[in-house]
Amino acid sequence: MDVESLQKSGRRRGHCLDTCLVISVVVLFVSVAAVGAGVVLAVRDLQSKVAPPARYPFAAPLSTEPTDSPVYKMQNFAYLEASSSELQSSTMKWRVIDYGAGDSLGSNFLFDSAQNSLKVKREGIYFMYVNLNFTCSYRCKAGVLSVDLDDKLTCKVELPEVSNSKPVTKKCWTVSWMDTVGSVLPQMTVPEGLENWKLELRGSGFGMFLVD
């Protein structure tokens, strides 16, 4: 048996294995980089679609340059301001507010003021958001309350134990499919002990707009 030949053969196999390993690592790195780039582009595309333009004061605190006409955007926007500061486990009360020459309810929406529900006239993907502002009247206890937009969004708010009126602000949002049959009925769930907390009407609201 030629020992030297076996050693050379072993070195060649080892070199081939090293080369294959390096190529495999490079291919894996390129694949991961490609997937990562795809995810980044997808996220940016989604953000560009769902971010409301800054020109609307009642929109969520995200911004992008508008791509459609103001008339189109207004008919596909809806914003309702809270109309009751009392914290209780029940359907939240809302109202349409004046905006410019019109109001904050686009023509593609139906608001039932008796039921406090919002319905769309056009099915599609909608961006929904809730802005909540709370203040303490005097010696407030800690607790966690929640606001549910049916099964589409749950916004939980942690209220601390405080003795002053320092405000607590919470913003929640989601993107969800809406049809013309159902409606959104925001519900608040409040545990016991939060009687001295109140919802500030100014800046507290619920809105949505058509994405696609």
Write a structural description.
With 212 residues, this protein is α+β, with helices and mostly antiparallel strands. The protein folds into 2 domains: 1-50; 70-210, Jelly Rolls (Sandwich), CATH 2.60.120.40. 25% of the residues lie in helices and 35% in strands. It has 2 helices and 14 strands; from the N terminus they run ααββββββββββββββ. Strands 1, 3, 8, 11, 13 and 14 form a 6-stranded antiparallel β-sheet that branches. A 4-stranded antiparallel β-sheet has the order 2-12-9-10, with no helix packed on it. The N and C termini lie far apart (75 Å). The model is unreliable at 25-67 (pLDDT under 50).
Q: Strand-residue fraction?
A: 25-35%
What would the principal axes of the Cα set say about the shape?
elongated
Q: What would you call the structural class?
A: alpha+beta
Distance between the termini: 75 Å
Our count of domains comes out at 2
Return the string of H and E elements: HHEEEEEEEEEEEEEE
Helix-residue proportion: 25-40%
Supply the CATH class of the largest domain: Mainly Beta
Question: What keyword list fits this structure?
Answer:
single chain; 212 residues; alpha+beta; Jelly Rolls; 2 domains; 6-stranded antiparallel sheet; 4-stranded antiparallel sheet; 2 helices
